[in-house]
């Protein structure tokens, strides 16, 4: 997944290897540069912080998931499609589980850019499942999936079963719950739209000028 023939890939790989060995908070940029076999100046040209390295790692994971994502069949339910996509993501993350466990345990206040990268990941996971993310409804789906992913990630970090049975059960349970929540939200939005349409129609009728009645002359002329 990480192209270590390139400087950027070597730095990211070095950071993840170090995170698998010791707490993330104890690792410095100099440690990462030395592990990657580059100077601190070389690292600085690629990354400004450890959070920037994590952001790049997250995007690399996104790319790998999109490459490996199973093709969605036309009759596949959205919940089943996103289930497959997220399980593909956990498979991609598998070799880095120890590192992610270290990072997750120490990441108290993530950098805003890193948070944006995590939210962008949810957008791309939904897109890979063929689920639209445009507009307000799309942003709600992205936020909802972020909550699902964060919850199931905790289960995955403690799930040492090669078949990831606990992870799959947790993901299925959370997606079903999220599906019901989204359905309720869609019903609320539909109701709000109907109310708004009703008021808009009523307002238009109130603003429409009343049609003037015929004048006396027009009435007389009409009878000739």
Overview of this structure, please?
This protein has 224 residues and is mostly helical. 74% of the residues lie in helices and 0% in strands. The protein has a domain at 50-200. The chain contains ten helices and no strands.
What is the structure about, briefly put?
The protein has 224 residues and is mainly alpha-helical. It contains 10 helices and no strands. The N and C termini lie far apart (91 Å).
Give start-end ranges of low-pLDDT stretches: 215-224
Structural class call reads mainly alpha
Distance between the terminal alpha carbons, to the nearest Å? 91 Å
> Count of DSSP helices?
10
Radius of gyration: 27 Å
Q: How much helicity do the residues have?
A: over 70%
% residues in beta strands: under 5%
- Mean pLDDT across every amino acid position: 84
Oligomer: single chain
């Amino acid at each position: 997944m990480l192209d270590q023939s390139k400087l950027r890939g070597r730095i990211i790989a070095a950071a993840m290897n170090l995170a698998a060995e010791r707490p993330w908070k104890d690792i410095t940029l100099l440690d990462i540069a030395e592990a990657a076999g580059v100077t601190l100046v070389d690292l600085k040209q690629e990354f400004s912080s450890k959070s920037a390295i994590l952001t790049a790692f997250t995007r690399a994971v996104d790319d790998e998931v999109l490459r490996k994502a199973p093709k969605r069949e036309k009759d596949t339910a959205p919940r089943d499609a996103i289930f497959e996509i997220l399980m593909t993501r956990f498979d991609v993350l598998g070799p880095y589980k120890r590192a992610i466990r270290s990072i997750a345990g120490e990441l108290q206040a993530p950098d805003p850019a890193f948070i944006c990268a995590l939210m962008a990941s949810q957008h791309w996971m939904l897109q890979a499942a063929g689920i639209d993310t445009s507009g307000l409804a799309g942003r709600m789906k992205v936020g909802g999936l972020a909550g699902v992913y964060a919850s199931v990630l905790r289960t995955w970090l403690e799930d040492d079963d090669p078949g990831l049975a606990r992870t799959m059960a947790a993901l299925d349970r959370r997606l079903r719950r999220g599906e019901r929540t989204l359905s309720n939200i869609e019903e609320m939005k539909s109701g709000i739209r109907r109310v708004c349409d009703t008021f808009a129609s009523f307002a238009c009728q109130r603003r429409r000028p009343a049609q003037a009645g015929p004048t006396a002359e027009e009435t007389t002329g009409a009878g000739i």
